[in-house]
Amino acid sequence: MELRSLTKRDEYEWEIPKQGCMNVPGRIFATKALLEEMDEKVREQISNVACLPGIQRAAIAMPDAHWGYGFPIGGVGAFDPEENGVICMGGIGFDISCGVRTMRTGMSIDELKPKIERLVEELYRRVPAGLGSKGKLHLSMQGIDEVLRGGAVWAVEKGYGYEEDLEYIEEHGRMEGAKPENVSERAKRRQLHEVGTLGSGNHYLEVQYVSEVYDEAAARVYGLEKGSVVVSVHCGSRALGHQIGMDYIKELYKAAKKYGIPIRDKELACAPINSPEGERYFSAVAAGINCALANRQVISHLVRQVFEDVVPEAEVEMLYDISHNTCKPEEHEVEGRRRLLYVHRKGSTRALGPGRKEVPREYRSVGQPVLIGGTMGTCSFILRGTEDGLEKAFGSACHGAGRAMSRKQAKRVYRGERVVQELRAKGIIVRAHSWAGVAEEAPGAYKDVEKVVDAVHAAKLAYKVVKLKPVACVKG
After folding, report:
1. Residue 47 is assigned to a structural domain of this protein
2. Which of 66, 193, 399, 457 is catalytic?
3. pLDDT per residue as tens digits for the range 381-412
4. Does residue 116 lie within any of the structural domains?
5. How far apart are CA 332 and CA 406, in angstroms?
6. Is residue 126 part of a domain?
7. Does the pLDDT value for residue 136 go beyond 80?
8. 193 is catalytic
9. Which residues contact 337 (CB under 8 A, 6 or more apart)?
10. Rounded mean pLDDT of the chain?
11. pLDDT at 128
């Protein structure tokens, strides 16, 4: 991206000045080096988002931002319904509520190593993964409606996990406002056999350990110490979420025309939050969020069963579960007034600061855990939300490293078998259902996650707590 079109606010914050039909400026949080790596489309897309009605403060991009559908991936926009604010499909994406769940095991990496080979083999065998993968749950249409209303709460009631898990899931495991009747039959049918499945693409199940502690006090609050083993699951609402996006993009485009909303990109199809179309779409998104929360809860149950069989001395318990493709109604202070805003986070993780009621009571003194997935060959991070982040970015942070090359490019450059061999030489076991999928997700296809997270930390959006290194990864 060319820097001459931007105003430098400080070393980690850059502004696209308000001009033309922009209602607010654009803001990009990044180092100069990360900014120069970004596609020019990021600037264009953030400028387009800034033109949407009811947007507050700024249209925002994170350090991992890259070109996406409507919004850049790594984009944030908060809209006030009292100012004709909109809900925008491009600000949520097709993989509704894709997110990360991290669980503690109560074990150290030294204790686990003798059993890691058998453990990863069982995880690969017993957690369904891959394109079109189907789980053991075969639901009826009524059963899917129950999932869409109940989320992780439904899963726990069916015996997949424990009541105490719900305290450590956003929205306590169930998003309010979901209306399954506003989700198409086709979307539901696509999900009948997919609850409890990992899927493909950048989704994964990873065994990791804490390699570095940056904030001892926060790490203690989160129950982590150097050498601790955790398991992280990255997946979303599968085919159902994608179909919701496909179903509503046309309806929202018609709504934008109906209400006279000027959109500079068809992919920013939207409707006023308080319109019938906007309310229907939000209720469908809430249902998609519940689908994703139920999906991760069932997968967690499968992971616990594997640990019980292979490593019975482990105690697999929830650390946190947070999504990064959502629209959430949240209270934020804007111009000295507390407002209810609909915060769109597209490839951006919620990162609420200390004291917020949405944060589990146990973590409230330090802020919400922010789970940032890296690549299977590098590392991931756990950060904590900050008060500065609430002011600067509505309590938002990056969601990962961000792609440096497209999936198509990656498959031209890398070979899946070779990637797996190279990672094995580094002590990282990868079990995958597709060599092409491994090539697409090769570590070299992504930006440097450490540089991205360092920029988030330096910009005070969220502070580093621990670094996680992978020892085993299951891919679709």
Report:
1. yes
2. 399
3. 999 999 999 999 999 999 999 888 888 999 99
4. yes
5. 35
6. yes
7. no
8. no
9. none
10. 95
11. 85
- As given in the structure block, the two tokens for residue 24 are 């607010």
Phi, psi of 319 (to 5 degrees): -100, -60
Q: What interhelical angle do 276-310 and 238-258 show, nearest 10?
A: 170
Instruction: Give the pLDDT band (50/70/90) at residue 133.
Output: low
- Looking from the CA of 325 toward its CB, the CA atoms found within 13 Å total 32
List the alpha helices (DSSP H) in 311-350. Answer: none
Residue 466, classed as helix, strand or coil, is strand
* Beta-sheet pairing, 462-475 with 429-432: parallel
Buried/exposed 101-111: b ≥16 CB within 10 Å, e otherwise: bbbbbebebee
Q: Give the Cα separation of 425 and 279 in Å (integer).
A: 52
CATH number at residue 464: 3.90.1860.10
Please tell me the total number of residues recorded for the chain in this structure.
Answer: 476
423 falls within a domain: no
Check: CB of residue 180 under 8 Å from CB of residue 189: no
What six digits make up the tokens of 318?
A: 């929830």
Q: Is it the case that residue 130 has pLDDT exceeding 70?
A: no
Write the pLDDT tens digit of every residue in 250-267. 999 999 999 999 899 999
Beta-sheet strands, E only, within 267-367:
270-272, 317-323, 325-334, 337-346, 349-350
**Could you give the number of structural domains in the chain?**
1
pLDDT at 138: 86
Radius of gyration (Cα) for the chain, nearest Å?
Answer: 21
Residue 78 structural domain: 3-404+446-475
